[in-house]
Amino acid sequence: MTPKTKSGLRVNKPNEGRLRAVIEKVKPEIDGGRFPAKRVVGERMTVEADIFTDGHDALAAALLYRRKSDSHWSETPMESLDNDRWRATFEVTEIGAYLYTLQAWVDRFESWRQGLAKKLQAGQDVAIDLLIGAGLVEETANRAPPTDKKRLGNFISILRSKQPDAGETALLPELAALMAKYSDRRWAVTYDKELRVNVDREKARFSTWYEMFPRSCASEPGVHGTLRDCEQRLPYVAGMGFDVLYLAPIHPIGRSFRKGKNNELGAGPDDVGSPWAIGAKEGGHKAIHPQLGTLEDFKRLVTKAKESGIEIALDIAFQCAPDHPYAREHPEWFRKRPDGSIQYAENPPKKYQDIYPLDFETDHWKELWDELKSIIVFWCEQGVRIFRVDNPHTKAFPFWEWVIAEVKKDYPEALFLAEAFTRPKVMYRLAKLGSKVMYRLAKLGFSQSYTYFAWRNTKWELTQYFTELTQTESADFFRASLWPNTPDILTEYLQFGGRPAFMTRLALAATLGANYGIYGPAFELCENVPRDPGSEEYLNSEKYELKHWDLERKDSLKEFIALVNRIRRENRALQSDRSLRFHPVDNPEIICFSKQTEDLKNVIVVVVNLDPHHTQSGWVELAMEELGLLPQQPFQMHDLLTNARYLWHGARNYVQLNPDTVPAQIFRVRHRLRHEQDFDYFL
Amino acid sequence: MTPKTKSGLRVNKPNEGRLRAVIEKVKPEIDGGRFPAKRVVGERMTVEADIFTDGHDALAAALLYRRKSDSHWSETPMESLDNDRWRATFEVTEIGAYLYTLQAWVDRFESWRQGLAKKLQAGQDVAIDLLIGAGLVEETANRAPPTDKKRLGNFISILRSKQPDAGETALLPELAALMAKYSDRRWAVTYDKELRVNVDREKARFSTWYEMFPRSCASEPGVHGTLRDCEQRLPYVAGMGFDVLYLAPIHPIGRSFRKGKNNELGAGPDDVGSPWAIGAKEGGHKAIHPQLGTLEDFKRLVTKAKESGIEIALDIAFQCAPDHPYAREHPEWFRKRPDGSIQYAENPPKKYQDIYPLDFETDHWKELWDELKSIIVFWCEQGVRIFRVDNPHTKAFPFWEWVIAEVKKDYPEALFLAEAFTRPKVMYRLAKLGSKVMYRLAKLGFSQSYTYFAWRNTKWELTQYFTELTQTESADFFRASLWPNTPDILTEYLQFGGRPAFMTRLALAATLGANYGIYGPAFELCENVPRDPGSEEYLNSEKYELKHWDLERKDSLKEFIALVNRIRRENRALQSDRSLRFHPVDNPEIICFSKQTEDLKNVIVVVVNLDPHHTQSGWVELAMEELGLLPQQPFQMHDLLTNARYLWHGARNYVQLNPDTVPAQIFRVRHRLRHEQDFDYFL
């Protein structure tokens, strides 16, 4: 027998020259197996590989998989596709890591069986062949338990019987199945890597975020909002269909070098400061801003939110205001300047004197890591399981790898959204993680990642970008989160497109991305005035002052948003990005794409007018076959936004969208139409 | 200091959290580093990778490389390209394996230097910055030997001097170079793999093959040719410019079940049999067919060939005629049938009773491998260094991996051409090799590989296929060998296209492929009658009978072939496939492609009419910039086949090719044209 690994898997015996099968080009296998794939509970994990051998012999192959914490491997047979490609699938049912690998072997019985079939068809004498087959069956019978041994014995007798129909008997599927059950794997090749898939809870794949500043939730203007006020806001947020409420940082805000309104230098005494300038004499990352309330208030908010189907997400911004207790208690965690002061943040020639970055190259990095971990754990202990991480790309990669793994040890359901608006390879890396040094410890990247969606506005841009995100290897590790706006990002498209632009971007974010979010109430109230021309900062940004929002304004998009989010909840196709594909439209201002469930029971086609100023029309050309549509059979397109139903026929169909009413159509494809034959009296 | 590997390379210290640099997506890295790349002596090995870190700090990176047999690593700095991509190059100068890997580190001094430059430009006070810089230089000075320590000391004094120009001094390239020389690599990241490139002699990349049946070389018809006759044929072969003469098997031919003319069952007493039915009472794979001559004759032929600049290549066909001594002496190396006889080759319902395949699953596989190795070694001992391997894809992959490595231990200059006309992934695998089991032993694939060239006749087919072979990862491990015909392959294109088709295919093979060959004299004499309609077998194939060829026939292509081969020798661009690119032509029957040396000193543009029946014309559109051509400057196209010279201007130029004269143009691009300014009397 071949040797076994610790985990019980048989591996290839060294110096065995008869291992004739080859396994190559396994997918998913990210960066040569350095990084795991990602899935969520209940998903199917499909694994493919090139498998072949020398000569003409038949092969068999199996996909082996197990939970990392289990010792027992399960296995499922692989199916041969075209061009030496093989495939199999297993379901991931629990949070945590699974391992998978492949095994392949030359199947001597199946090779013999195929040869026999051809010889019988050609009318050749197969007497000797049947004896060869009997020998193969006999070998196998010796490995089988008594019942099957007896059944195999019967076949052996027939093969040796010289009966005229012995050849036909040898081809019976029953014999093939028995032989496969006890297949001879002495020279089976096991793939040289145990690959990994990390399984998260479903929200990692499908989530609907609402970002909000708690201090702006007071019922009266000019009053500092509290966590109790946030509770009052829950029905509003739940009513729009959001299931994650992400709060801007809730910690004490530094006073030294505090920024005034519109990020001006030198705050006045009434200026509230940026919540991202964390830390003051009242405490740091584990404290709550006194004007927001107490830890008890926070825990109550978490509970109340849960009752409304909402999870509270916190912001993890690992940086300090100069007043942060760390600056006094742990100056060794910062870089020092020759004059003894702590080095503030810089991006020369810009200076950010209100922010001290942590020094990840400090000799005391271990203590620093432990403390930062304790912050996340502290909030986990208060019931938080979702963290939006601010600028993770300005902290060392090994730290994230370590801390995510450490937190997930005790809180496996924790999710981390990376707010890294930076170069593409850095964004991908944060979703992968796993350095040479730390990877024995863990291989866990960020659960979700912000994207360039905000700046992808034309059809070409959207098509290119979302094809890359969903149809290439990155789909296996990078879970896109789409934000049409954030407190830092008011795009030109929103600035100049008015209310229709907000509807267009909402419809796109909510249907292109199973994970999306908005920064509200700025979004639903179509706030679109920038601080300066050419800037993406809001005028009078909520980052630096209290706001009082009129949530009941007539032009609010809250009902449109509620409708779109309901459509997302009711249509499983929109809860994953894997099936996304674009369909041609003969008008560059109209984009068309579809998503569907694997069983084709839920097929959604989205058509959006990207021009917020004019009605646009054009001819859509659907990839019928992939949507499960027959060319000759009409089908119904049910627009879930307006409840209108259209009868379409064939691939090419006409659409027209007026941005002043609704700039998008979200069609559910209804395959089964009533015909005259369906009526009772037709017959 | 970080730990070192056995080979002296510093590797990453475990549990060190400050390793901030990331190295990813290294190229070449075939199948995640499982397989080595291939190069030949004198080539440059270019390595690229994604390299980045968190935040905004500057990075430095180095490419490390060494001969596998050396312990010392050399290093060359990497250069940053766009989008976090880096590149460096080293030259491989000797046959054998080289290792390479990468190192990257955050460059604190360079980060500081870039910040300082920006601050100076913005007119900011840099007093503190200069002190920070002085501290960095001081740290480095402590690592430097006395001379450089002193030079660095001078800089430190200036940085601390508060002189008004101290900032400018800090930016001097001299200081940057000194700091780079003693860069701080405490937290340098070393890539987690030592990758490999196998270096062959130049003939692996550039060779010109002529295949011939020695027994058909007699000067008189009906007489069995000898190795002495082959000697007489050498001037003819050398005259056409071939440098490899590949002989069909020269061993004794089996008599049992010998095939007659045109592969008929039941040979007559005068039938000579197929040379691939190896083995008879006179001996097996180490013996020479008595009618061909003696081992002494063979060695003499090898020597004489060498004098003509020709290497003799032998055919390695590991299969046995029933009369082969192995069948008697080692029946355990074959599969047995229940009646005690040895299993002949089958491809049901076809039977090949004249051939016994070796059983690579025999319990005695080690003895079998040793014996097969001894065959190759035997012929190496007789002076042979090139082997064309018959049907390697019907023998176990681990065997080839082992035997190629074993032979190359003593004969590193040995080359192996894989004759595997089979599925694409199997062909690629033979060029890679390296199974889990055997790869500690060696990672050496076949040196060259037959291709689908014979069946790629249209512009679309040729463009797709040769773009894949030369412009994708396969170019790093798969060296294509192009054969327009073989004794087994007389394509329809040749059958129906007449002499122009042979010229077209010769020109394509010789210019698309740095390695190519023909089976002659059938090729140069335009032999094109198939055994049956729809068959690719020759009528009265030389495989089953003696042939007498009239080499002096007027319509022989020997002079055309000699000219094409001379052009190959004189133009380095044609001696490699790496630079191949196709250029559009507005006529589907005309193909245009180019090859060039890296320094652009030799640029070849080939235009071929693929229609053997009609004159075709069209407009070629050259990718000017890549060929080193300026849009506004005329250039000369010198057709090396006709010696005609054309003045072209701009990307679009007209071509016309008459298949009845020459269906191809092989242009050398001449950049420098004489202008009126060049004449003495112009001024």
Strand order of the largest sheet of chain A: 21-20-19-18-13-12-11-22
> Spans of chain A of 5+ residues with little confidence (pLDDT < 50)?
none
Structural class of chain A: alpha/beta
Distance between the termini of chain A: 68 Å
Protein chains sharing the most extensive interface: A-B, 72 and 73 residues
Please give the count of helices of chain A. Answer: 14
Q: What does it look like?
A:
The structure is a homodimer of 683-residue chains. By secondary structure, chain A is α/β, with parallel strands linked by helices. Helices cover 26% and strands 22% of the residues of chain A. In chain A, the strands form seven sheets. The first copy, chain A, has an eight-stranded parallel β-sheet. In chain A, helix 1 (108-121) packs antiparallel against helix 2 (127-141). Chain A starts with 21 loop residues before the first strand and ends in a 13-residue tail after the last strand. The relative contact order of chain A is 0.08. At the A-B interface, strand 1, helix 1, helix 2, strand 9 and helix 9 of A face strand 1, helix 1, helix 2, strand 9 and helix 9 of B.
Put the structure in a nutshell.
2 copies of one chain form a homodimer. The first copy, chain A, is of the alpha/beta class. Helix content of chain A is 26%, strand content 22%.
Write the layout of secondary structure elements.
2 copies of one chain form a homodimer.
Chain A lengths: L21 E6 L9 E4 L3 E9 L6 E9 L6 E4 L1 E2 L4 E7 L4 E11 L1 H14 L5 H15 L4 H14 L6 H5 L2 H9 L7 E2 L4 E6 L6 E6 L14 H13 L4 E4 L47 H13 L3 E6 L2 E2 L4 H5 L15 E3 L2 E3 L3 E2 L7 H17 L4 E5 L6 H14 L4 E5 L4 H9 L15 E3 L8 H13 L8 E2 L10 H21 L2 E5 L38 H13 L10 E3 L6 E7 L6 E7 L6 E6 L13 E5 L5 E4 L3 E6 L6 E7 L13
Parallel strand pairs in A: 2-10, 11-12, 11-22, 12-13, 13-18, 18-19, 19-20, 20-21
Antiparallel strand pairs in A: 1-3, 3-7, 4-5, 4-8, 6-7, 8-9, 8-10, 14-17, 15-16, 23-24, 24-25, 25-30, 26-29, 27-28, 27-30
Helix pairs in contact in A: 1-2, 2-3, 6-7, 9-10, 13-14
